[in-house]
Design a protein that fits this description.
The structure is a single chain. By secondary structure, this protein is mainly alpha-helical. It is built from six helices and no strands. The protein is extended, with a radius of gyration of 20 Å. The relative contact order is 0.12. The model has no long low-confidence stretch (mean pLDDT about 85).
Length: about 130
């Protein structure tokens, strides 16, 4: 596989008006949806293509009510950057799976503070060592 850094590269630009911004968002959304099977295959994701498409929709819906044009332009830029990095295989599997973390393990949570997380991991390690002896 030949690495072509200009694959999917576009110039950064600002939207002229809201109609232009809407077209750019829809184009970006469609690009993501069309590439979902390829993303699932490239990264060997253990989930159906429909789950990838659902997550893409959730990410776009999260920013549905943004009402400032510069913010919309920045979100479009970030979306295209993520799209280019994903399809050029510049990301590793954990980078892609971070979007599905809550979906894969509903019990996944962050510790309340550093010390409780540290003690929880230490207890798990000690229990594992006791079982191995």
């Amino acid at each position: 596989m030949v690495i072509n850094p200009t694959y999917l590269a576009t110039r950064t630009r600002s939207s002229v008006n809201w109609a232009d911004a809407k077209l750019r968002v829809i184009r970006s959304y469609r690009d993501w949806l069309r590439s979902a099977p390829e993303i699932q295959q490239m990264y060997s994701l253990n989930m159906p293509v429909s789950a990838v498409r659902t997550k893409v929709r959730q990410e776009f819906e999260r920013h549905r009510y943004v009402s400032q044009m510069p913010v919309v332009d920045m979100l479009i830029f970030k979306s295209h950057t993520e799209f280019q990095e994903t399809l050029n295989y510049w990301k590793q599997l954990p980078h892609v799976l971070k979007y599905f973390r809550a979906d894969e393990n509903p019990n996944a949570r962050l510790p309340k503070n550093f010390m409780s997380g540290f003690l929880e991991v230490r207890k798990t390690l000690l229990d594992g060592m006791r079982l191995s002896f």
